[in-house]
Amino acid sequence: MCTNIDEIVSEIINFRDARDWKQFHNPKDLAISLNIEAGELLECFQWKNSDEVNELINSKDKKKVEDEIADVGIYLLLLCNELNVSIDEVIKNKLSKNKEKYPINKSKGIATKYTEL
């Protein structure tokens, strides 16, 4: 069982390399694949109302959602690896930027874009 991102990435890379798939994993194709998998995740929720979504995530069909989330995560981590981007660093940096754009006193409880605050 993996305990951190580096171990997960290592497992993904080992899986990929054992199958000689790195040749297909350039940044463009990884970004395309990431979006295709994100679309497949969206399909799990398409045309469902809130009650149907709650039913989905509390049923055995939740496994399909989990599998699509995993596919998105795998391609995202492969893309980060290929671009030599630290996922934890870029997330921390983005959160810091978002804290400035969305101060609590102006954005709490509302979904207004920062340019409209």
Summarize the structure in words:
It is a single chain. The chain has 117 residues and is mainly α. The chain has a single domain, classed as Helix Hairpins (Orthogonal Bundle), CATH 1.10.287. It is 68% helix and 0% strand. It contains six helices and no strands. It has helices spanning 5-18, 27-43, 50-57, 62-83, 87-101, 104-107. Helix 2 packs antiparallel against helix 4 (62-83). The model has no long low-confidence stretch (mean pLDDT 95).
How many β-strand runs?
0
Percentage of residues in helical conformation:
55-70%
Second rung of CATH, namely the architecture: Orthogonal Bundle
What portion of the residues fall into strands of 2 or more residues?
A: under 5%
Estimate nothing, just give the exact number of structural domains: 1
CATH topology: Helix Hairpins
SSE order? HHHHHH
Number of helices: 6
Low-pLDDT runs = none
Report the mean per-residue pLDDT as an integer.
95
Q: Please state the CA-atom Rg, rounded to the nearest Å.
A: 18 Å
Structural class: mainly alpha
General form: globular
How far from one another are the termini?
A: 44 Å
CATH class: Mainly Alpha
The CATH homologous superfamily is called MazG-like
The major β-sheet equals:
none
Please write out the topology:
Elements: H1 5-18, H2 27-43, H3 50-57, H4 62-83, H5 87-101, H6 104-107
Sum this structure up briefly.
This protein is an all-alpha fold and 117 residues long. It has helices spanning 5-18, 27-43, 50-57, 62-83, 87-101, 104-107.
